[in-house]
Amino acid sequence: MKISCNMIRDLLPLYVEDLASQDTRDLVEEHIASCENCKKRLEEMRTFEEPPVDTDIAPLRNLQNTLRKKKLQTIILSVMVTLVFAVVTIAYLTTPAYIPYNEYAVSIIEKDDGTVLLNFSEEVSGFNVNQYPAADNSGYVYDITTWETIWQQKINKNDLDNTVLNPNGETVASIYYYNTDGMENTLIYGEPITDGSIVTLPRLVLSYYVLLAIGLLFICGIGLVIFRKNEK
In angstroms, how far is the first alpha carbon of the chain from the final one? Predict the structure, then answer.
């Protein structure tokens, strides 16, 4: 039986890898002894070298650093969104809603030693007192403002204790309730300081909202720096 070169070339990989039986090896060796083409093919297969393995891991490190940065940015963005949501929620729950004057909101208690106490109703969450001397030097004039919040109404009800208006023994000439809706102040104790009505100008800026705006501005500034850096 005549063995063709095509059959020998099919057997050469087994021969090179030493996977062929002895009979097959004898057959291949007998053929290549008289066939230069197959012999040359065998030599080429034996001298074949695998391409060198790329050991440069710089691209892999760059990819790893990129993924790490993406993950960090995602975490920071999530924290920022959570902070903004928390700030907005807290601001909504604790934003003061000023209470118009009514006889139950605040009452005045005068003691024998001249001390004047403020007694607040359950609806009052907080209050503010402004003090200034009377024009006739008869004592001090006090402006009182009260407010309520959703937090105090719905979540954590906390009754205010009686508050001493003049702890240092100041003479209380009069006490006005400041109506934040632009209406005239209501005299609730003492003598009026003028013959006409008194209107306190509305507050243009509340420190509460200023602090809230600064906090949100700081959070947004961090986000802007992060994403501008990512864009570059």
Answer: 74
Q: Compute the chain's Rg from CA coordinates.
A: 45
3 within 8 A of 27, measured Cβ to Cβ: yes
CB 12 within 8 A of CB 44: no
Over the stretch 166-175, which tens digit does the pLDDT of each residue have?
888 899 999 9
Integer angstrom CA distances of residue 65 from 59, 71, 79, 98, 181: 10, 10, 21, 53, 58
- Read off the amino acid at residue 72: L
**Tokens for 29?**
């060796």
Largest Cα span, the chain: 138
pLDDT tens-digit map of 137-166 = 889 999 998 888 888 877 777 777 888 998
Helix pair 36-46, 22-32: axis angle to 10 deg? 120
Short-list 128, 147, 131, 127, CA closest to 139: 131
Q: Are strands 186-190 and 140-148 parallel, antiparallel or unpaired?
A: unpaired
Q: Are 175 and 189 within 8 A, CB to CB?
A: yes
Note the Cα 91 to chain centre separation in Å. Answer: 14
- For residue 28, with 0-12 CB atoms within 10 Å meaning exposed, 13-18 middle and 19 or more buried, which class applies? buried
pTM for the model stands at: 0.52
Query: In terms of C-beta density within 10 A (0-12 exposed, 13-18 middle, 19 or more buried), how is residue 182 classed?
Result: exposed
Instruction: Please enumerate in sequence order all residues whose Cβ is within 8 A of that of 73, keeping only pairs 6 or more positions apart, or say none.
Output: 226, 227, 230
